[in-house]
Automatic annotation (TrEMBL):
This is Phenylacetic acid degradation oxidoreductase PaaK. Keywords: 2Fe-2S, FAD, Flavoprotein, Iron, Iron-sulfur, Metal-binding, Oxidoreductase. Residues 269-358 form the 2Fe-2S ferredoxin-type domain. Residues 2-106 form the FAD-binding FR-type domain. Pfam families: FAD_binding_6, Fer2, NAD_binding_1. Its cofactor is FAD. One of its GO terms (molecular function) is flavin adenine dinucleotide binding.
Length: 358
């Protein structure tokens, strides 16, 4: 199965000085594979001086917009984001895997729910896709966006958000929180911290009891503060959905997959890998992650970030035990079912059976 497909760049639009919105068109045969769910991302690969880099970018378009678009903000000294902002042009071809990710909730046209989205900087991209799709497909639902940026000049999609407020009159509220630029309401200046989230609830800008689901995407410290603020206001864990773009910290606590075998001290493991319908056994050092072990034997096991953030490398452990050292992507219920991030999972038992197809 081809993991990467060619996408034609059909448009590049500067949204702010340091960010572009890239429109992409799959080949006709691939159109179905790129039929995304709101909140999902694409993983691109490109060679930089002979080294293959893979980078993920969230789709910012809504499902009903009839277009595939990602928003890429330039990171200082960053390889792919600088290339996309400075070199990429209309007519070029990019290689990407079909959409992935589970940063969404199921929509129901008859539902009348209240959603809150928190986005920091480029973290707006999946939240924009979610709010566009939700407001279009759940005509009785509302969405409040709390959008954190340094200043007015760095707000991606500012005009689009104003237009959406008019399109979905009375159903979309946008609260801009700016780190440095002063605003009429003091509460809207500074960082979005746990305390600030509490103040937004207490001042009536947000309503905890009326909130069905909260989406958070942005830098990790901001996400953790917001999640703490939401929980303090009474939201339950399963009402909060996260998407982390980059990992600055070592990760959550280590999670272990239920063992069916006792471990041994041997340093070599037999890893039985099912991928794309066929099964092969790989012998590899326990020092290698399951992903690296599979790839060292020329298996095309999927990956993107290799940092436990994106879940592209997810597989299910059917037998044996692995230790997952970092997990920013899988939900607890997935871990309980035996799913692991293979880039972060190291064999503990001498035999491990994993399946990438489940
Ligand atoms: C699921 C997911 C979705 C995402 N969605 C988006 C999105 O919609 N929009 C978006 O803009 N981003 C998104 N990201 C982040 C994106 O994937 C990239 O991480 C980001 O663009 C940086 O990639 P880069 O190649 O430009 O930077 P990199 O080259 O990876 O560099 C990152 C940083 O490391 C520093 N660095 C690099 N090499 C070295 C070195 N040798 N020594 C010291 N420092 C170094 C750079 O200066 C830079 O500060 C997403 C990430 C994930 C996981
Ligand atoms: S490759 Fe991203 S979590 Fe493993």
């Amino acid at each position: 199965m081809a993991r990467f497909h060619e996408l034609e760049v059909t448009g590049i639009q500067k949204t702010i000085r340091d960010a572009v919105v890239v429109s992409l068109k799959p080949k006709d045969d691939d159109a179905e594979a790129f039929d995304f769910i709101q909140g999902q991302y694409l993983t691109f690969r490109r060679d930089f001086d002979g080294e293959e880099l893979r980078r993920s970018y969230s789709i910012c378009a809504g499902k009903d917009d009839g277009i595939l678009q990602v928003g890429i903000k330039r990171v200082d000294g960053g390889a792919f984001s600088t290339f996309a902002n400075e070199e990429l042009k209309v007519g070029d071809t990019l290689e990407a895997m079909p959409p992935m990710g589970r940063f969404y909730t199921e929509l129901d046209a008859s539902a009348g729910k209240n959603y809150v989205g928190f986005a920091g900087g480029s973290g707006i991209t999946p939240v924009l896709s979610i709010l566009r799709t939700t407001l279009a497909r759940e005509p009785r639902s509302t969405f409040t966006l709390v959008y954190a940026n340094k200043g007015v000049a760095t707000i991606m999609f500012r005009e689009e958000l104003e237009d959406l407020k008019n399109t979905f009159m009375g159903r979309l509220s946008v609260i801009h929180i700016l780190e440095t630029d002063a605003q009429e309401i003091d509460l809207f200046t500074g960082l979005v911290t746990e305390e600030k989230v509490g103040q937004l609830f207490r001042s009536g800008f947000l309503d905890a009891e009326g909130t069905d689901t909260a989406f958070i995407c942005g830098p990790e410290p901001m996400m953790l503060g917001i999640a703490a603020g939401l929980k303090a206001a009474g939201l339950a864990e399963d009402q909060i959905k996260f998407e982390l773009f980059a990992s600055a910290q070592p990760g959550r606590l280590k999670k272990r997959v239920v063992s069916k075998e006792a471990g041994s001290t041997a340093n070599e493991a037999q890893i039985v890998v099912t991928l794309d319908g066929s099964t092969r056994t790989v012998s590899a050092s326990k020092e290698l992650s399951v992903l690296d072990a599979a790839r060292s034997d020329n298996l095309d096991a999927p990956y993107a970030c290799k940092a436990g953030v994106c879940s592209t490398c997810r597989c299910r452990v059917l037998e044996g035990e692995v230790e997952m050292v970092t997990n920013h992507a899988l939900e607890d219920y997935e871990v309980e079912k035996g799913y692991v991030l293979s880039c972060q999972s190291y064999p503990v038992t001498d035999k491990v059976v994993v399946d990438y197809d489940q």
